[in-house]
Structure formats: structure tokens, C-alpha cells
From TrEMBL, chain A:
All residue ranges annotated as the CobQ/CobB/MinD/ParA nucleotide binding domain in the record: 5-225
Record organism: Pararhizobium capsulatum DSM 1112
Xref: Pfam families: CbiA
Record protein name field: Septum site-determining protein MinD
PANTHER family in UniProt: SEPTUM SITE-DETERMINING PROTEIN MIND HOMOLOG, CHLOROPLASTIC, SEPTUM SITE-DETERMINING PROTEIN MIND HOMOLOG, CHLOROPLASTIC-RELATED
Cited SUPFAM superfamilies: P-loop containing nucleoside triphosphate hydrolases (SSF52540)
KW Repressor (keyword) present: no
Keywords carried by this UniProt record: ATP-binding, Cell cycle, Cell division, Nucleotide-binding, Septation
């Protein structure tokens, strides 16, 4: 039985799709069977970042409406054998997702894969709540800016009230992924610092992805950043985040802090 | 034409209790409205979508004046769901309904002299004043998130965590926040002027005790980010650092 992860955020443009692709590829490179699911029906983008936009024939909506079998819609990645993509529809909208259909697809994927990573649409509307409903683990993607943090706080509230886990009286495992972090700007006060974000959101930190041109370059050539250049700073940060998802207790290093030089290894875990 | 009801379906009527905010206007009403406007200007949207009850018990007002007051409140987007403490003669079908806890209010107060059917009345022993409804306290061990609203009509609320900006905590008793208070906290909403608010880090958008408010701008800047307690002295809210 696989684990279902929802990658979510309140605000758009914070790096959900990039993070979904990068984490999916990182997990799959270690041999795990991974499927990344694009829930952003109407604005599909995950296929672009995965470099599979020309191979999309059937999509999530086709599967939910019974027009295609799940196996027909799954696209195998050309670089990593155990990585699959379930694309979203570009032409239909979120109203085509039904709660029963989503449940059926997620259950089927859960039985076939080790990791099911769902790229949620931003916000608190139907598409986002459907994407998070069946998740076991949530990754809340946040930029170090006030509006993004505020919206993430709202999303965490929804994760604690509008999901199956919450309705069953359980608590959902939640992780914070801080993206586009620039330590120089945080130091100058142009951005929130890591501690401030953690203090406001108070969920465990999964990783800090440094602001880098490598991310943009990788997206534009249609490759998850962890596949495009495995030695770039953001790729390393995603690899480490993937290891933490696997249960490893790896300390989070704030980008910009010289590792080893000052011996500043922060083991950051908020309550 | 007489329709025959083929499916006699019962209508669902359920008892439910809601926590409503009560507004008590003061004479002269026009001055009071100016004060209300000031409050509303400082916390935009405060009255939006909230059930508001108009408490007229301390107001001597005529029907036309009342109609005028309700209309003026409506232009401020304050929608009155009911009127409390008004004489029966004051209310008309076009005015909000009376809320009387099921008891009738009449123009003339008649102190009912009950026959000795109640044996307790014959023996005025020094009993505990009204079997005080067990003031239950609520403990929340999670942060209150933006967009959430926590209502606890009776007793204290203790929050082990922070109250996020954009959220609100409403309690009949005191509010204790073992974290940062960034949202709104309203203590003593059921008329408890001895209620207090305690927090480890004051960054509130609005605080209120027994209906008296302070907004973020009114708070002493030197107390921001400090551990404070907030209480009511007469009609002024006092804020002071603790420890």
C-alpha cells in the first residue's frame, strides 16, 4: 500500500509543480515506484515540467469519467523507469472531478505505487480540497513572504478539518517546504527568515530550497531539477527533502550558512 | 383547488444555540453611531456576517426612533437578527423579532406573587446563588489557523499554540494563549467583565473584553511582542506586561 502525498499551497506560483516533479523524480531514482498526479485540472503544467506534454493522450478527467483506463493514461518517464505521470486535462475544468471518481483513482494508484504525489491547485476551492481529501501526508509549499505564509496557515487549517483523516479523528502528517529562499535577502529583512516562518506555521520543516536559476532552467527544458542537474543546490535540497520523507532524520541546513565552516548545523524541527 | 397532500413529510425543527454579539446603543443615538463608525473604520468588516442582537434594555426609545436606528445600522451593514429587552409595544412586524429567552416582556412589570407552590421559596437559606452552570474550560492543543473561528460560550479557553492572524477566539471567560496572539481575541463575551486575556506574545489585530474593544493601532507599541495580560477596569482596557 503506497503513501499518498498532496503538495499544496494557499498562494499560487510558489513552486508546487516544480516541487512535485523534483520530489517525485528524487524518490523514483532510489528505485521506488512513484506516480505524480496533476490535479490542477484546467491549468495543467506538470506534464510540461516532466517533459511529457507531447505524450499526453488520456488524462485524469478521462479516467474519472470512464473514457479511458488508468493504465492508458499513465505515462512512463523516459529517464527514470519507476516514475510515472498522470496528467490533468487542459480543456476541461475542475467541475469534472467527482469525489467518488477521485477516490477510485487514488485507491487504484495507492495499490500499484509506493508513492502517489498529487500536485494540487492553489487556493481553497473544490479542486484543492479534492486533491487533499485522500492524502496521508501533506507538503505545504511556502515562499518566505507574508502573503504566502498567511495563506499556508489557512491551508493547514483546512488540512486539519476538511480531509478524510481529519473526519476520522486522525491528524494528517504535515511538512513545510520553504521554496525560493534567499539567505542574503532574508538577512537584509527583505524576506521572512526561516525561524519566523516556522514560528508562524509551527509544522515540521521538510526542506529549504534555495532561490536558483537552475530551477527555472530545468523547468524550461522539461526536466525535474533533480534529474536535470543532480549536483545543483536546489537538486541537493530536494534529494535531502525526499530522504526526510522516507523517514530519515536529516538536519536541515539553511542555504547560505556555510556547512561545516561555522559548524552551524541546525537541527530544525518545529513543534 | 384543494391539493391533497400525499406525502405528509414532517418539517424538521431543531433547537440550536448560537453565540451572538449584542450591541447596546446609548443615548443620544447619533453620538453612539459616530462611535460605532469609528470602531468599524478601525476594523473593517467586523460586523459582516455576524449575528447581531440589539440590546435595548438600557434605552428609552420610541418606535419611530427604533425603526430609524435599525435602518441606520443597516446602512452600516450591521444586520440585526433580533431585539432584546424591548417592550412589546415597541415592536412591529417590520422590525426584527424580539428575543426574550422564551419569557414575555410586557410594558408593565408585574412582580408575580407566587403561591406557596415552591417550597424552596419559603425557606430562604443562604444557598449558593443559582446553581452556577459548570464553567467548563476548553483546552486547544493546536494552533488556531487563519480563517478559523473558535467559539466557547462559557468558561475559559486555553490555547497551547498560537492564534494566527486572520483567526478569532471568542470565549465567555478568559483566554490564555501560550504562544503568539496575532488574530482577534474576545473574552467575557457573555457579560463577564472580570475575564482576562493572557498571551505569551502580543501581536493581536483586535482584543475585546465584555464588549470593550482595542484594535491593533490602539495598543501600546512598547507592549508588542511581549507577554501581557489584558483586563478591564471600569470601561477601559488595561494592557500590562507579565513577568
Amino acid at each position: 500500500m503506497g503513501k499518498v502525498i498532496v503538495v499544496t499551497s494557499g498562494k499560487g506560483g510558489v513552486g508546487k509543480t516544480t516541487s512535485t516533479a523534483a520530489l517525485g523524480a528524487a524518490l523514483a531514482q532510489n528505485g521506488a515506484k512513484v506516480v505524480v498526479v496533476d490535479f490542477d485540472v484546467g491549468l495543467r503544467n506538470l506534464d510540461l515540467v516532466m517533459g511529457a506534454e507531447r505524450r499526453v493522450v488520456y488524462d485524469l478527467v478521462n479516467v474519472i469519467q470512464g473514457e479511458a483506463k488508468l493504465t492508458q493514461a499513465l505515462i512512463r518517464d523516459k529517464r527514470v523507469e519507476t516514475l510515472f505521470l498522470l496528467p490533468a486535462s487542459q480543456t476541461r475544468d475542475k467541475d469534472n472531478l467527482t469525489p467518488e471518481g477521485v477516490e477510485k483513482v487514488i485507491t487504484a494508484l495507492k495499490n500499484a505505487f509506493d508513492w502517489v504525489i498529487c500536485d494540487s491547485p492553489a487556493g481553497i476551492e473544490r479542486g484543492a480540497t479534492l486533491a487533499m481529501r485522500h492524502a496521508d501526508v501533506a507538503i505545504v509549499v511556502t515562499n518566505p513572504e507574508v502573503s504566502s505564509v498567511r495563506d499556508s496557515d489557512r491551508i493547514i487549517g483546512l488540512l486539519d478539518s476538511k480531509t478524510l483523516k481529519a473526519e476520522n479523528g486522525e491528524t494528517m502528517e504535515k511538512h513545510l517546504l520553504l521554496t525560493r529562499y534567499d539567505s542574503a535577502r532574508a538577512e537584509r529583512g527583505d524576506m521572512l527568515k526561516v525561524d519566523d516562518v516556522l514560528e508562524i506555521l509551527s509544522i515540521p520543516l521538510l526542506g529549504i530550497i534555495p532561490e536558483s536559476m537552475d530551477v527555472l532552467r530545468a523547468s524550461n527544458v522539461g526536466s525535474p531539477v533533480t534529474l536535470a542537474d543532480g549536483r545543483s543546490a536546489p537538486a541537493i535540497a530536494y534529494f535531502e527533502a525526499a530522504r526526510r520523507l522516507n523517514g530519515e532524520a536529516l538536519p536541515v541546513v539553511i542555504p547560505g550558512d556555510k556547512r561545516g565552516l561555522f559548524g552551524k548545523l541546525f537541527g530544525r524541527r518545529a513543534a | 383547488m384543494n391539493d391533497v397532500l400525499t406525502q405528509p413529510r414532517p418539517i424538521r425543527l431543531k433547537g440550536r444555540s448560537f453565540l451572538a454579539l449584542a450591541l447596546s446603543p446609548e443615548m443620544p443615538v447619533d453620538d453612539w453611531l459616530v462611535q460605532l463608525d469609528n470602531l468599524a473604520a478601525r476594523s473593517a468588516g467586523f460586523f459582516l456576517r455576524k449575528p447581531i442582537v440589539l440590546d435595548l434594555s438600557s434605552l428609552d426609545i420610541g418606535q419611530d426612533e427604533l425603526r430609524d436606528l435599525v435602518a441606520k445600522l443597516a446602512t452600516r451593514k450591521v444586520r440585526i437578527m433580533g431585539i432584546e429587552g424591548a417592550k412589546a409595544s415597541l415592536l412591529a412586524p417590520d422590525l426584527p423579532p424580539a428575543l426574550t429567552d422564551g419569557k414575555g416582556t410586557s410594558d408593565v412589570e408585574i412582580t408575580a406573587v407566587e403561591e406557596s407552590s415552591a417550597p424552596a421559596a419559603a425557606n430562604p437559606a443562604p444557598t449558593v446563588s443559582a446553581p452556577s452552570r459548570s464553567s467548563s474550560s476548553l483546552i486547544v492543543s493546536q494552533p488556531v489557523r487563519s480563517g478559523q473561528s473558535l467559539h466557547h460560550a462559557e468558561g475559559d479557553v486555553t490555547i497551547v499554540g498560537s492564534v494566527a492572524s486572520g483567526s478569532e477566539v471568542v470565549a465567555g471567560g478568559s483566554i490564555h494563549v501560550y504562544g503568539a496572539l496575532r488574530g482577534r481575541a474576545m473574552a467575557g463575551t457573555m457579560g463577564n467583565s472580570t475575564a482576562r486575556i493572557f498571551c505569551r506574545k502580543l501581536e493581536a489585530e483586535l482584543i475585546a473584553i465584555d464588549g470593550f474593544y482595542l484594535t491593533a493601532e490602539d495598543l501600546e507599541p512598547s507592549l508588542r511582542g511581549k507577554a501581557v495580560q489584558i483586563w478591564l477596569e471600569g470601561e477601559t482596557i488595561k494592557v500590562a506586561a507579565v513577568i
